[in-house]
Amino acid sequence: MSTPMTYARYLALDDLLACQHPLSDCDDEMLFIIIHQTKELWLKQMIRELRLAKSLVAGDALVPAYKALARVSRIQAVMTLSWDILSTMTLSDYSRFRSVLGPSSGFQSDQFRTVEYLLGLKDPRFLSYQEDRPAARAAMEQALAEPGLWDEAIRAAARAGLAIPADVLDRDVASAYAPHAAVEAAFLTVYREPERYWDLYQLAEKLVDIDDATASWRHKHMLTVERVIGGKRGTGGTAGAPYLASTLSKRAFPELWSLRTAL
């Protein structure tokens, strides 16, 4: 007779709750670990949703893609709120165990970079942080080499009859995307005629939701770092808060923002 399924067995709670290994005797280190491990679980789910959304958009199933995209932006909102929990840890609290982190940093998160690549924010320099984790590097390389979500949205616009130049459609998708006037013009048409291009219009707004939520996450991250360590350098060798401030203007779907001035 098989053993009935239990809550703990279904969720593998014994394994999950055994994954926290503080290196100091400071109570705040456990919070620090749990916050970051939870974020990595949410990033895992975001990667699943973004891959699903990309495949749906590539197949012109725009309406079914909305659910996955909405889920991504809501996960981002939860992740942003988690910074409020971490900010209950003061500079004095963090200073007591910061040394055990060594050169490790969230800057090195392969899943966060994979999410960026899936959105279309391509930068191969982050691959170098996964030299000791071949599976993680392979996942990043796959996301880097394939079209990003914005590439697929632009291609969907072209299939809908909007004028997208060949050099945009045939670009090297592993390279950083550069905003293009023709792409802005195409989506400006979508926004001026939402009834005609309703599916694309709603897709565009779901993408703006994600960019909006990403910017909020980056901003809250920067403020939390400023609150906890001030202007000190980050553990991974970055400039800390100044580096995070430099990322605030990043947009995965730039023309969806610039077209608003012309609309």
Describe it for me?
- The protein has 263 residues and is an all-alpha fold.
- The chain contains 13 helices and no strands.
- Helix 4 (62-86) packs parallel to helix 11, helix 6 (110-119) runs parallel beside helix 7 (134-145) and helix 10 (181-192) packs across helix 13.
- The longest helix is centred in the first third of the chain and has 32 residues, at 27-58.
- The model has no long low-confidence stretch (mean pLDDT 94).
| Euclidean distance between termini CA atoms | 67 Å
Silhouette: globular
Radius of gyration: 21 Å
Task: Quickly count the helices.
Answer: 13
Which structural class do the helices and strands define? Answer: mainly alpha
Overall pLDDT level: 94
Question: Characteristics of this structure?
Answer:
263 residues; mainly alpha; globular
Brief overview:
With 263 residues, the protein is mainly alpha-helical. It is built from 13 helices and no strands.
SSE topology sketch:
Layout: H1 7-10, H2 13-16, H3 27-58, H4 62-86, H5 91-95, H6 110-119, H7 134-145, H8 149-159, H9 166-169, H10 181-192, H11 198-229, H12 241-246, H13 255-262
